[in-house]
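Quick one: co-fold with phosphoenolpyruvate.
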Amino acid sequence: MATELNIAPLSSWGLRSIRKPIVIAGPCSAETEDQVMSTARGVKELGVEIYRAGIWKPRTRPGSFEGVGTPGLRWLQRVKAETGLLTIIEVANVKHVYEALKAGIDLLWVGARTSVNPFAIQEIADALIGVDIPVLVKNPINPDVELWIGAIERLNKAGIHRIAALHRGFSGVEKSTLRNEPQWQIPIEVRRRLPNLPMFCDPSHIAGRRDLLHDIAQRAVNLDFNGLMVESHCDPDSAWSDAAQQVTPQELGSILRALVLREANSVDSDYQRHLSELREAIDQLDGDLLSILARRMDVVEHIGRIKKENGITVLQAGRWDQIVKRVHQRGTEHGLSQSFVDVIFKAIHEESIDRQQHILDNLT
Ligand code: PEP
Ligand code: MN
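Sure, here it is.
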């Protein structure tokens, strides 16, 4: 479905600098006034402009710390008054929206457990009609591009033009070293579909561990994301939520300084010429790949017809096993990873089976 959005540029967000990456930092949760103030002073020293803190926390199990609630909003007002930092909190329902607006919070974000639910997003969008506030929309917990775009669209239709996507990874079924799988192709696809939409990354919730933050942040920067949201706490080990992934403002400073920043483009004419030659080669190879695939499908259909004439099933499990083993071996000889070869050949095999199935179903 075509998506027509009216997205305001980052230059309208009231930030002093929109140099990449824009950094949003602060604790997972506001816990005490001292913790909020002390962390805010720390991140302010790094040149950060936007301060995050969760006031209401979505926790997996009841009985965990669920946020300090409304009293924490006063601490954020104090942060703003004393440090000049802009403040951002998570809103998950209409009450959160009203309280945040009443307290003068500067930006809002919608969490992954909310963007997954169109009813919840629509209620938040309706509550924001007539309000001009920047909103960051985290990806839904499952890797569904349409659902993520849908949430952004609902808010945009309600008049939220200062809007951005915030990538925090996806819950996986398989055990992994990461808390939430990044599946980078999903934010890349969102960007392809909505090229004007600013894209942020939340390495904290992707990593789940502080030692992995740098690599994930670097990855986002390499993919030309506009900004990062990183959880930072004045005393991470004693944090009331997400302790393992939080870093002190000093550690955050080291992570940010270690990022290698690159330009998205260059006007250098040698670079431009060389790049376009190589891109032409890629386009040519993509064309070759497609004609080889089409030829393969012709052969597949031919096989399908002789299987049909001879009353043979579409699938012979042994044959597929032979193909997998052979392509793994040939792939390795060509320096291609097994997982890559698997993805490609599973897709090719699926299409081949569909084609033969179609021939069987077709009575003529
Ligand atoms: C958070 O940012 O603290 C949070 C709860 O994030 P998410 O919605 O990504 O789980
Ligand atoms: Mn958190």
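If it helps, Residues 28, 231, 241-242 surround manganese (II) ion (ligand 2) (CB under 6 Å).
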